[in-house]
Amino acid sequence: MHSFVLVVHIILAVLMIALILVQHGKGADAGASFGGGGAATVFGASGSGNFLTRLTAVLTALFFVTSLTLAVFAKKQTTEAYSLKTVQTTAPTQTTSPETSPNAPKTGQ
């Protein structure tokens, strides 16, 4: 699940970069008065601004959700790494006999 969210996050980032670079700025409207209104024929009378702005907003919201999801995964992974659950809780088995134990009294002394 972590890998899937990471892949979606990277794809969204690349798409957002491409969309933001394709959009024209506020000063680009002056060029349309000199015959540069080619975008209006593809996206309708309002031009590409409204469509690309909404698409960028949707991709930004999805990017935000994947960012939060990856942060939750990272927190969970860090918590598990530093928790006491990783410590072995089983008692060691006794492999030495009581006679050869270092704490047992020696026979013949």
Automatic annotation (TrEMBL):
It comes from the Bacteria. InterPro entries: SecG. Residues 86-102 have a biased composition (Low complexity). It is a multi-pass membrane protein. It holds the Pfam family SecG. It is found in: Cell membrane. Its main location: membrane. The chain crosses the membrane at residues 51-74. Residues 85-109 are annotated as: Disordered. Keywords: Cell membrane, Membrane, Protein transport, Translocation, Transmembrane, Transmembrane helix, Transport. Involved in protein export. Participates in an early event of protein translocation. Belongs to the SecG family. This is Protein-export membrane protein SecG. It comes from Acinetobacter seifertii. The gene is secG.
